[in-house]
Request: fold
Amino acid sequence: MTALSTLVVLAALLAVPLAWLGRGNRGIALVALLAALVLAWISPLSAVWVVGLGALLPPAMRLAERQGLQSWLAAAAAVLVLAVFAYAQLAPGIVWIGGAFFTLRQLHVIAEWWMGRIAAPSVAAHLRYQLFLPAMFVGPVHRLPAFERQCARRRWDLADFLAGAERVLIGAFSAEFVGNVVVANLRAHLAFRLSHADPFLLDWALSATDWVLLFFNFAGMTAIALGIALMMGIRLEENFNQPWRAKDLLDFWSRWHMSLTEWCRDYVYRPVMALTRSTLAGLAAAMLAIGLWHEISFYYVGWSIWQSLGVVLSRTILPPLAAPIPAGLRRVLAPLAILAWLALARPVINLLIGMAG
Amino acid sequence: MTPLAQYLARLMPAWLVGPALACAYAVMLICVLIASSNDAAQIIYIDVRGQ
Reply:
């Protein structure tokens, strides 16, 4: 963990006793207050944006409902949120913390309200949701209705508290030791052993180890977030479902960073598919959203095309080719083939960008 | 019982679960403390990128 990640985890752990100072929503409001202070300390701009929009959006929603201007407000707010996200990513020198996650949460609230699935939240409920410290910097991208139910129903339960604490420890072990020590050392060893190999193959091999490192690191940090939330009596959405057991690339993306892929399924894939009646257009749009969420760059546009191509191939050409392979062997080979495809993206895209540039 | 305790209870007699759990926690904690002195690279999914 970097110093800042450690600070954020420690602040979230400090928020656990705060959460139990008040019952139900009141304790989580204290957590939100601490989150606002932490955010203001490390990135005042992010704090002003999250708290400002968090406080202004609910009354604006109620006003728009009275005037019959829901669509106008939803469109304007969504454009504003996306513009701020893009500006913060592209403008040099801006310290922007947690934006990748709170942007998705803001768009989720706007979209659900516009579709009439949720009522305009109260300012307090909206701020509690946007400023839930354990999930602010690493996700998952939790949903407002489920979160509100959890806040209202939470009760002290020693078994949950201990299970959460255990999950924090296992998550820290996964991220800090397995990821940053074991896999990172394996990667360094591999880089040394293959130093004379073809640069393309070397990058492919290192990219594969980077995916493994990323899994232990990211899944570990997510486990810390989920564990701390459970210590507060809140069960958040899971982010990983044994991605190494995926049968193909589409199955992989439904098991990896699930809260992001489910968000893109609900707010990008389905609307685009409904508009175009094309599964391919929906898939390409969802993958583009996932790619640009990581970083607004040509590299990630290429990454999105690569992932879309992989999903299409895995659902069209690969099944007849894989049919003769025994089922047991297929289960072993599938995760390796998926890892090889995911890892191949980096050397291929860098090669293409190099050729174009 | 925590999930790890339940898992250990399936593998060993009940009287051994407590000590095994304590050992597992101690090993993980020591590994985390030792590893935390390393300067780790920032990953894209932990959104403290602006710093």
